[in-house]
Predict the structure.
Amino acid sequence: MQVHLYSAGAARVWIEQCLSASAWVGLANYTARYAALQSTLNQVHQCLSQGLPCHLAVLTPETAHELQQAWPDRVERVGSLGRAVTGWVVLAGDQQVYDISTPEALGQTLRELDVLLVPDLQTSSGGRHLDRVLRQLHLKNSGIQTMQSFPGGAQAVAALKDHVGS
């Protein structure tokens, strides 16, 4: 049996761990596609509208509800996987101390960065979360010298390698 999975990137590790567990191996042939949240939602809408296979979609509660309203006869929300923890990622070996202990310290640290690599602030679930944080710190559209945007958080983290030694 072929099972088609669509997921926002935040759930990738969880899905891969589940699919590699002995209870799941051999039950089906799994095809998983990972993308930024809005891209994933668009793919699922396309599959549903064209009658293509879409067995599982891992999205935010809001987008799952949106799908359920659009396709009540085909989409059932089965539960929540929990919440993703916000992370602060730096290059291995980076000797700088980044104070993120308070909102004020985080704001100051963000203003002092040479570059901030972020997931897309509108289409990525991680980016939308970061956008709210930047607004709360009064840093939206100001205060950060160099911000580079990527489709999702995984691409932003992968781009760190381009900044080694800078």
Observations:
- The two ends are 49 Å apart (CA to CA).
- The first helix runs from residue 12 to 20.
- The CA atoms of residues 32 and 76 lie 19 Å apart.
